[in-house]
Design a protein that fits this description.
GO terms for molecular function: kinase activity. By secondary structure, the chain is of the alpha+beta class. The protein is built from 16 helices and 24 strands. It has two domains: 224 residues, 2-Layer Sandwich (Nucleotidyltransferase, domain 5); 153 residues, Nucleotidyltransferase, domain 5, CATH 3.30.420.40. The chain is globular.
Length: 470
């Protein structure tokens, strides 16, 4: 049996999928990984993440034998400090971490955030490598002294698997990569006060790095999960977009234009195609917000569809600003102190009202991000949120456009396609990325949500002003 394995080391789950030659999934293995969240700090155990990768790959190879090719992707941003062998110097600091929020505010007031965006097209937020490294340099320099590299999640895994120390242009995009030269911008490193830590930045492999597993199977590393999902969903034409409804709510639009003069927001992810980028607006919280709400309400995921179908659009007046992350928001604006808000709640509000209001709030955030990213073409939808058919319909209604539901595990799928392109292996990308269905918007609900979205923006403007004042 010829099989291809895609590995996706995500924020809350490590997954690996074995595909056949036509992209049909043969077997899937998953292992949960923990997040240590306390006082705005979010960390992960690297050994647990790496052990999860080993487990899922071992389980799949027992089923399908040695794969013909392996592709690796994983969560981006944060800082994973490792020694020469790729082992942890300290726990990984997640992209969700908020400890550097004061530093981001300091840089914003001093114009550093805008200056960096003008060079790289990336607007820094507390959990991205620049602020985290600068925070560590100020408050925990011994960790940086002990480290050989400050890498991303997939880079740590790849080094442990193959011995190769490298990153790729997608993970390097935030915040140090010049998107025109595809190399680190030393002026940005200096602007963040990190010139003396420049040696921690791993080599940028362009094209993506390759190596071998212990079994002898070839493996390629990259791009990171957002860009891998775009490949796995077939979003490669300029103007087309992807909405990832995962732990993070990410809006991506393919572009051939660098907009470095606009408002600093989101990032430009460099791709395997020089001269083409993904304009990305990765909001901080997607399904994590719904998971929180379900836990508070005592509702299981299997009940979401029934609750959404039983509660009308507008959730009987309950509204949610869905900014639940302890580090605030990063797209389509940076507001470290912004937090979630519920309004219109009364003793008559039901669990269905609260769940629908959260889902609608996330839908409005998605519309905001896609508009800022410049969506003009078709839109694909992927991620755990697509398991709810009612929520997928809600997205189509809120966005007032058809959405193509991508085949499952698009990150792992995209990792295989990237590895195949790197190795010269012929796979039919059109067949691998065909949507499973297209969801059309309901005109009446779309009209209702168009007005509700404008009201959402008004409430958001007030909340942002209050966040900055506190």
């Amino acid at each position: 049996m010829v099989a291809f394995i895609g590995i996706d080391a995500g924020t809350s789950m490590v997954k690996a999928v074995a595909f056949d030659q036509s992209g049909q999934p043969l077997h899937t293995e998953c292992r949960p990984v923990r997040l240590d969240i306390q006082d705005g700090r979010v960390e992960q155990d690297m050994d647990e993440v790496y052990g999860g990768v080993q487990d899922v790959v071992s389980a799949l190879t027992q089923r399908v034998g040695r794969p013909a090719l392996v592709g690796l992707t994983g969560q981006g941003d944060g800082v994973w400090l490792v020694d020469e062998s790729g082992r942890a110097v300290r726990p990984a600091i997640s992209w969700m971490d908020g400890r550097a929020h004061a530093l981001v505010e300091e840089w914003s007031a001093a114009g550093v955030i805008t200056s960096v965006f003008r060079r790289t097209g990336s607007a820094m937020f507390p959990g991205c490598p620049g602020p985290v490294l600068a925070w560590l340099d100020r408050h925990e320099p011994a960790s940086l002294d002990a480290a050989a590299s400050a890498v991303a999640c997939k880079d740590m895994v790849f080094q442990r698997l193959t011995g190769v120390r490298a990153t790729d242009v997608s993970d390097a995009s935030m915040p140090f990569l010049d998107p025109r030269t595809r190399r680190y911008c030393d002026e940005v490193v200096a602007a963040l006060g990190l010139t003396h830590r420049r040696g921690l930045l791993p080599t940028v492999s362009d094209p993506i790095a390759v190596g071998e597993l212990a079994s002898g199977a070839p493996i390629a590393s990259g791009p990171y999960d957002l860009a891998a999902c775009a490949l796995g969903a077939g979003v490669t034409a300029p103007g087309d977009g992807l909405l990832i409804v995962g732990t993070c709510l990410a809006a991506l639009v393919v572009t051939r234009e660098l907009d470095l003069d606009g408002d600093p927001a989101g990032l430009h992810i460099s791709t395997d195609r020089p001269g083409q980028w993904l304009r990305a607006m990765p909001a901080m919280v997607g399904t994590a917000a719904l998971d929180w709400m379900l836990g508070i309400a005592g509702v299981s995921h299997t009940e979401v569809d029934a609750l959404l179908e039983a509660t009308p659009p507008g959730a009987h007046g309950v509204r949610v600003l869905p900014y639940f992350a302890p580090s605030g928001e990063r797209a389509p604006f940076v507001e470290p102190r912004l937090r979630a808000e519920f309004t219109g709640v009364s003793l008559e509000s039901s669990r269905g009202d609260l769940v629908r209001a959260v889902c609608e709030g996330i839908g409005f955030a998605a519309r905001h991000c896609l508009q800022a990213a410049g969506l003009t073409g078709s839109l694909a939808l992927c991620g755990g949120g697509t398991r709810s058919s009612a929520w997928a319909q809600l997205f189509a209604d809120v966005l007032a456009r058809p959405v193509r539901i991508a085949e499952g595990e698009v990150g792992a799928r995209g990792a295989v396609l990237a590895a195949a392109a790197r190795s010269g292996t012929e796979l039919d990308a059109g067949v691998w990325t065909a949507p499973v269905e297209v969801v059309e918007p309901d005109p009446a609900r779309a009209a209702f949500y168009a007005k509700a979205y404008e009201e959402h923006l008004d409430r958001l403007a007030v909340a942002r002003a209050l966040a900055r004042a506190n």
